[in-house]
């Protein structure tokens, strides 16, 4: 399990690093800076979506799996996912509605409000993906954790780079970021459902 967690994280990190370098080269310093700043607020607000639920899912699913109580295990994952998704939706709404305020006040770049709104969509899907990966760890299916992380990294690299090359610039990079979490959430939720 540890091997899959370490190797999956390492591979995903390498893919994301290479993609970041390529995107930075295509966008240039000014536009890459805008892209990075547009992700700051949604990622900061994402921190408030966990509330310790991921750690609880890991702990209690591992404990219940060891005891053979699979019916309670399913409920913990289902309700954890429900609570985290509800929190993610609330954070998305706050981020989307207050994007102009965040861009003007926190970032002092009012022109980034549009990009912040796009990036805020990722929060909901990022919540689903991280909850699924936590459940995989608790279920001792760390290979699925690694697979989901790598699917997200590959999706981000390919979609972001393709959209930037086509000419969508910063918007393309941000949409690629969001799309990667949509893909990862879909993959993680599907794997979790079939487990």
Helix content: over 70%
DSSP strand count: 0
Strand content: under 5%
Q: Could you spell the SSE succession in H and E letters?
A: HHHHHH
Distance between the termini: 16 Å
Query: How does the overall form come out from the CA principal axes?
Result: globular
Oligomer classification: single chain
Rounded to the nearest angstrom, the radius of gyration is 17 Å
**Main sheet characteristics:** none
Nearest-integer average pLDDT = 95
Q: Structural class of the helix and strand makeup?
A: mainly alpha
The residue ranges in which pLDDT falls below 50 over 5 or more consecutive positions are none
In short:
The chain is mostly helical and about 200 residues long. The chain is about 90% helix and about 0% strand.
Keywords:
195 residues; mainly alpha; 0% strand; globular
Topology:
Layout: H1 2-46, H2 53-67, H3 70-97, H4 99-106, H5 113-138, H6 142-194
Helix pairs in contact: 1-3, 1-5, 1-6, 2-3, 2-5, 3-5, 4-5, 5-6
């Amino acid at each position: 399990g540890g091997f899959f967690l370490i190797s999956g994280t390492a591979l995903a990190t390498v893919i994301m690093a290479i993609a970041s370098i390529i995107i930075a080269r295509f966008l240039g310093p000014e536009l890459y800076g805008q892209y990075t700043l547009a992700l700051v607020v949604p990622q900061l607000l994402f921190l408030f979506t966990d509330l310790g639920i991921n750690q609880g899912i890991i702990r209690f699913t591992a404990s219940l799996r060891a005891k053979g109580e699979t019916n309670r295990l399913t409920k913990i994952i289902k309700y954890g996912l429900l609570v985290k998704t509800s929190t993610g939706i609330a954070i998305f709404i706050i981020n989307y509605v207050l994007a102009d305020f965040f861009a003007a006040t926190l970032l002092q770049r009012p022109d980034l409000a549009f990009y912040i709104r796009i990036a805020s969509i990722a929060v909901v899907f990022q919540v689903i993906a991280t909850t699924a990966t936590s459940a995989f760890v608790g279920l001792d299916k760390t290979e699925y954790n690694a697979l989901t992380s790598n699917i997200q990294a590959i999706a981000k690299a390919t979609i972001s780079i393709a959209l930037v090359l086509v000419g969508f610039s910063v918007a393309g990079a941000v949409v690629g970021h969001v799309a990667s979490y949509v893909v990862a959430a879909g993959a993680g939720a599907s794997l979790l459902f079939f487990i």
